[in-house]
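Predict structure. Chain length: 343.
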Amino acid sequence: MLAELLILFFFLIVIIAASEIFTNAIESLGTKLNFSEGVTGSIFAAVGTALPETMVPLVAILGGNSAKVSEEVGVGAILGAPFMLSTLAMFLVALSAFHFRGRRKKKTITPEPTGFKRDMEFFLFSFLLAFMVAFTPHQYRLVRVFVALVLVLTYFYYVLETVKASAALVKDGHATGESKALYLSLVFREHMFFVVLQLLLAVALIIIGAKGFVHGVEVLADILHVPVIALSLLIVPIATELPEKVNSILWIRKGKDTMALGNITGAMVFQGSLLPAIGIFLTPWTLNITVLTSSVITIMAAVWIYLLALRKRHISSLSLVLNGVLYLTFVGIVLYMIASGKS
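Prediction complete.
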C-alpha cells in the first residue's frame, strides 16, 4: 500500500510541474499570436490539458479485455470528466480565489463575461444533446450518428466563434499577457520554436503523469476492491482532470480569472461535444443509474454556472460552494449504491 501511495505522489508532482511549464508556454504562445485570454484559456489550454482524459475512454473502449467493462469505463470516463469540471474543479477555483484573495487584491472572480457565457451555452447544448440521445432506441442508429456529427460540428463552430471574438477582446484589454518569461528562454533565445517546444514537452509530461497516476489509482482501487463504475466515474476523472485543476489554480493565483475559468469551461465544451460523439460512434451509449445520476448533477451544476454568467460579472467564491456540495452529493449517492449493491 505504501509503495502505491508513493507512486501516486510522484506522478502528482510530475503533473503539477508539467502544468506550471504548460501555463508558462501557453501564456507565451497566446502573447506571440496576439490572441485574447479567452482563446488561450478556452481552446489552447483546454484542449492541451484535456489530452489525458481523452485517452482514457479511447483506450478503455478500443483496448479493453471485456466489452462490458470497456463500455462502462469508456462511457463513465466520457461523462465523468464534465461532471468533475462542473462540480469539483469549479469548487477548487472558488477555494483558490478565497485562499489567494490577499495576493489577488480582490475578493471576487472576474472572468471576461461574453466568453464565459458562450462557453456555458455551447456546453449545455452539446451535453444535453449527448445525454438525450442515450434514450433513443438502438435501432435508430442513423439518428445517433446524426447527433454525433452535430456534436463534432458544434465544437468546430465553437472554436470559430471564440477565435472570431478574439480581436475585439484584445482591443478591450483582454489580450494574453506573460506573467514571466518563457522558461526555455533562460537557456535559449526567445523564439516561437522554443515556445512550441516547451509546450510539446509540457503536454508530453502531462500525459505521462496522468497515465502514471491513473495506473496507480487503478492498482490502488483493485487493492481496495472498488467497483469498476465507481472507478470510472469518481477516481479516474479526478486523476485525469488534475492538469485543468492545477492550471486553473495557478492562473487564479496570478489573477488571470478569464484563463482560469476558460481552461475549465473550454475543456467542458471539448469533453461535452467531441468525446460524447466518439462514445456514440463506438459504444451502445446506454446510461445505467450511476451514470444517469452523474449526468443529471452535471446539468444542474452547469445550469447554476450559466446563471452566474448571466447575472454577474463578478462571481463570489461563496456562490461556487454549491458546485462542491453537488459533487459531495454524488459521492454520497455512489457510496450508498456500492454499500447496497445497486451500482
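Summary: The CA atoms of residues 41 and 259 lie 4 Å apart.
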